[in-house]
# Entry
Amino acid sequence: MANNKLGQQTFIFQTRPEILGTGSVVGVKEGKGPLSKTFDVVLEDDMFGEKTWEMAESKMLSESINIAMRKAGKNQDQIDAILSGDLLNQLMSSSFSVKDFSVPFLGIYGACSTMAESILLGCVLVDGGYADAVVAASSSHYSTAERQFRMPLEHGNQRPPSAQWTATASGSVVIGRSQNPHFCCTYGTVGKIVDTGMTDANQMGAAMAPAALDTIYRHLLDTGREWSYYDLILTGDLGHIGKRILIDMAKNLGIDFSPAYDDCGVLLYDEEQDVHSGGSGCGCSASVFAGHIYKSMLGGALKKVLLVSTGALLSTTSSQQGESIPGIAHAVAIEAMQ
Amino acid sequence: MANNKLGQQTFIFQTRPEILGTGSVVGVKEGKGPLSKTFDVVLEDDMFGEKTWEMAESKMLSESINIAMRKAGKNQDQIDAILSGDLLNQLMSSSFSVKDFSVPFLGIYGACSTMAESILLGCVLVDGGYADAVVAASSSHYSTAERQFRMPLEHGNQRPPSAQWTATASGSVVIGRSQNPHFCCTYGTVGKIVDTGMTDANQMGAAMAPAALDTIYRHLLDTGREWSYYDLILTGDLGHIGKRILIDMAKNLGIDFSPAYDDCGVLLYDEEQDVHSGGSGCGCSASVFAGHIYKSMLGGALKKVLLVSTGALLSTTSSQQGESIPGIAHAVAIEAMQ
# Structure
């Protein structure tokens, strides 16, 4: 019987499922940021020709899936499952995107950790021989998230400096196999929920940083790797404040991975774009990985990446009821084959 | 390399992951129904000693997980992952339940199909050697669902005859291995989203029946089995109307599986309990499977069951925007070992 379990929380992908192609579609603001040229599509209008923001987000997700499949050289008959999730209640963006594909659907939710969870479970399906190829995807949209979680945009409420900006972005990857593999997923570490009792929804980086640390620490323990094995440890979207908290907490544990560490929420926007503590949303790590990071791997600048998408497990109901904001992070190691 | 893919949508679980134990916790109304004696816990008060319905639902889920682990003879250190989801926005019930376990968490969402999706992915993890044992779980609560999806209970609005009653219920199963396996998961079929354009949120059985048929039909095609192979084909919660629609649609395809067919939403309540078209909610198929069905298997009355949980992929936003209600169904075959 196969043993693909390593340590307490880590899966080994012995057959090396490969990233065959990625697709990224981002909004107007994200297209003005420093990663602009790494995305496949930058929208001219965040409505994307739809009547509602929600349908625009679904269309962005569909477009990123189509681009990833095209680059992977796959049509939808060759995709065994789409694994996707998003921030909208009942995964509205994913459902209304995937319904237009004739492909089995597995809905996944881990807040902004969803992209790593999708990739991780997608790798399990391919590595375990349950699928030849799958799509792992995720999305978010500033306007759908604001409408749902915070305030109607028309209200024009002020955001505190610690707040993060939900990215209008989607990212998809096709995971499968090729004769001559380039970039493969080698390990996945499933995160535990970490709840430090934070209740401030404008401090999500602080709420998620302990979970990110827990998953990174567990990944290194389980695999016996040093942090320096990786060219880049990339958290999902802790933002500027959460990034600093994570570095400090790790130093307290005796690990300083700051030379190889960055955060998708920090990378996505320029400081003058007025997003305060940085980007967030499921689409943030999805698009930054599918765009900037994967292209840096293709270009040879990165060979070993640990993607650690991070999620804040809150809802408007839990916030209104005064509950805390539990955090979670899942990790996937993606490595260039020699 | 392992090949555990069968036909277009079906996974083979060659190593036969076993159901080691189940737990079910239901509310007051469900405890007055015909399946009352098959549940592990029937609440005396749907608040379950908590301040909010949402925390009561989380506590029900935790309790069902604890019961399932106890019956399986496992403590939480021996569980490699909890896979769970629920109807609440951002999986609030699951997040606030699982945060109290020190176990890696994979959030899953397929509306009322969530229990079959959790079991299916849990079987993949165990069968593929990524985990020794996992918990697959789901829950729903009448009062949390009414508050979120429909009307404040205080409003006392009238429900049309086609409406279904969201079950106050949770169910959990531990999937793992034993020396002497009894009831094992043999196949899983991942559903496609089927959207027939239905827009009436009080006709969810009708919205889900085509997806249920699609998944059952695909399961039989992929596995080469006749419907009569199964003692019971059990849909998630189509309710009375959806059940009749499914039987009619199947007959039109030349299959009459009605002698071996039933629906969790039909089984959970007596007709005089005034639930109109029957039960629904993630907890409906979760508790009916974990309680009544699994106990019937243990008692020898059922040997081969195809659990087909069905989900309606709507949200309040999609309904308010006039969008359709896409349906989905996932199937898992559970069989007594000879």
Q: What stands out?
A: Chain A touches chain B through 61 residues (CB under 8 Å).
